[in-house]
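During the reporting period the student researcher (J.K.) took over the structure-prediction task from the postdoctoral fellow and processed the backlog of single-chain submissions. One of the processed entries is reproduced below for the supervisory committee.
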Amino acid sequence: MTERKTPAAKAAAAPAETIGRFYELQKEVSAPQPYVLTSTISIGPLTRRQFVAMERAVGDEAEQERILFGENYDAIIELFADQPYEVWREFTVEINRHLFGLSVEEAPGKSEESSSS
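J.K. obtained the following structure tokens:
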């Protein structure tokens, strides 16, 4: 009996294409390099899946951070836990500028409400 694969599974199993516009876009677009926080923690670049999830999490800043930091979320939160708030604030400004070219207030998924606080 032949195993049926979903389109996503087929795409993941297929060798990387080296022709077509999708391939060209990957070569042409300059995504930011990962943001290196420590020797063991780096963040990004942001995927489309993360971007969409962040937009859906509008108003839930903790969930947006969890999406953005991914598997490093707990380590990042712990790293900054006992640091002055200003250090955390500068980090968030810097990471948003690095990944989005924007300030925290301009980052995707930020509501008008969270921008005014």
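The committee noted the following: The chain has one domain: 32-115.
J.K. will present the remaining backlog at the next meeting.
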